[in-house]
Amino acid sequence: MPDSRRHPTPPGQEPLHPDTLMVSHGHDPARARGAIKMPVYHSSTFVFGSAEEGAAFFDVAAGRAPAPAEGDGGLVYGRFDHPNLQLVEARLAALDGAEAALVTASGMAAISTALFASLRPGEQIVHSRPLYGGTETLIGKQLAAWGVGATAFDDGLSQTQMASALETAAARGRVGVFFIETPANPVNALVDLAAVDAALSDFAARHGYRPLSICDNTLLGPLFQQPLRHGIDLVVTALTKYVGGHSDLLGGGISGSVEHLQPLRQWRSTTGCMLDPQSAWLLARSMETLGLRMRRAEATACAVADWLAGHPRHVIEVLHPEHIDDARYRAVYARQCQGAGSTFSLVLGGGQAAAFRFINALRLFRSAVSLGGSESLVCHPASTTHSGVAPELRARSGVVDGLVRLSIGLEHEDDLIADLAGALTVALGPGAVVP
Q: Backbone phi, then psi, for 336, in 5-degree steps?
């Protein structure tokens, strides 16, 4: 069986490109009766060859013994591990440039596992702002109820703000986690990963310990940004989005070192937030076309953003990485991102009323939450994904009532632009000249 805890490239060989690894890495047809694709292993439990083998397998599964140098330590029970999960984890680790990976039942399950397994009551979390609405709720309500304090910083390009937030949090208790989301959903704000690493190193020099750094990498995914290469300890990704890519599954991923993942692995096994075999099989299928899909969608999104930014009446603001005119932003974007992705927002004059008129007038874009699927989606974050965030925090983060988020899919760019042109005319009135 594949093992996500093993590096995909044998010593002395040139590493394969991610696109190549996604096609066949982690599956040996000879071990599946010649099946070119891994079967779906719909089995809740696995048979031991002997009582001694069962005891040894359980020691590995429970974390009491390390996995053997060869193999995965054996399969015990579907809540701990299963073959389809191992395959997806092996490929996710390869995509993220990680030593290992864990896959969970949803993106929020990944974030919850990472935070609850890494924090203790009385500890503090420092985080960037804005965050996805579900993450804001997790930190502000569930973690707060467990006695975990939170300190936010708004400027992800400022190492000074990061350092100040760390010191503020440290005055209240031990800082257990430094959590960031970059680019931030839905405004595409960036957090400088090099500045994070420097701020945490300076903090460690003063306080004698270094908080665990965790980055939500969902908006760019492993294709266009690899935070582990910039000093981040753990990367979480909503695999529901681009990696799944077809709006037909839920999943979450956490990538990092075996050491950092060990307590998270135990938390996942205990709480049971394991991804099921069928969804894992679908993820493995989707990973084979990840590069093709993301590059095509990114190119289309750039064309759409260019058209929107060239609107002759300048009635909209386009929050696409290629159209955010800030020298610091441009420098960080060039240093840590390999692409712009295909999810961005625009801001309409006229607030929620104009935004609703615009969304309701679209014909090709489907009005729904989520992103990264093969179809183009549109949503109004202030009343949906971020509606649980306090209005003053939404406004402070730029999630205003006139903001509309677009997730560009695989349709032809000319058709999407024509759809947007018609909807803008409806939303802004006949006086708004749309090319």
A: -120, -5
* Residue 2: pLDDT band with limits 50, 70, 90: very low
Q: In b/e form, how buried is each residue of 370-393, taking b as 16+ CB within 10 angstroms?
A: bbbbbebbbbbbbeebbeebeeeb
The whole-number average pLDDT for the span 55-76 is 77
Residues 100 and 26: beta-carbon distance below 8 Å: no
Q: How far is CA 124 from CA 177, 209, 235, 399, in A?
A: 7, 13, 19, 26
Is the four-CA dihedral 251, 257, 261, 265 of positive or negative sign? Answer: positive
Mean pLDDT of 179-201: 97
pLDDT, tens digit (0-9, with 9 covering 90-100), for 325-366: 999 999 999 999 999 999 999 999 889 999 999 999 999 999
| Own/partner long-range contacts of 91-94 (Cβ < 8 Å, ≥24 apart) | 91/21, 91/22, 91/25, 91/26, 91/284, 91/287, 92/4, 92/222, 92/237, 92/239, 92/243, 92/253, 92/255, 92/287, 93/4, 93/8, 93/255, 94/8, 94/18, 94/21, 94/22, 94/25
Q: For the chain, what is the largest distance between any 2 Cα atoms, rounded to a whole number of angstroms?
A: 79
Nearest of 304, 324, 297 to residue 423 by alpha carbon: 304
Tell me what the mean pLDDT of segment 34-54 comes to: 87
Query: Which pair of tokens denotes residue 48?
Result: 């031991």
Report the side by side order of strands in the sheet with 252-256: 100-104, 252-256, 234-238, 212-216, 175-181, 124-128, 149-153
Phi-psi region of 357 (alpha: psi -120 to 50; beta: other; left: phi over 0): alpha
Is 146 exposed, middle or buried, given 0-12, 13-18 or 19+ CB atoms closer than 10 A? middle
Q: Residue 165: what residue type? A: A
Q: Is the whole-model pTM more than 0.85?
A: yes
Whose structure tokens read 């060859």?
49
Q: For 413, what's the count of Cα atoms within 13 Å in the CB-facing half-sphere?
A: 14
The pLDDT value recorded for residue 25 is 84
